[in-house]
Amino acid sequence: MTLILTFLGKGDSHQSSVSIATAQKLSGLGSRVLLVGQNPGPTLSTLLGTPVNTSPTEVSPNLMAVKLSSTFMLEKGWEKVKELESQYLRSPTLKNVYGQELGILPGMDRALSLNALWEYYQSGKYDVIIYDGDSPLSTLQMFGIPEILSWYLRRFGQVLRESDVGKTLSPFIQPITNAILNVSWTLDYLAQEPTNHANDILGKWKKTLANPSHVATYLVTTDDELAIAETKYYWGCAQQVGLMVKGVLVNQGQLSDSLSQEFSPLSVTAIPRPTGTDWQSLQYALPDFLADFMPPQPITVDAVSREVRVFLPGFEKNQVKLTQYGPGITIEAGDQRRNIDLPVPLRRQPVRGAKFQNHYLIISF
Question: How far is CA 238 from CA 121, 180, 258, 301, 303, in A?
Answer without folding.
Answer: 20, 45, 22, 19, 25
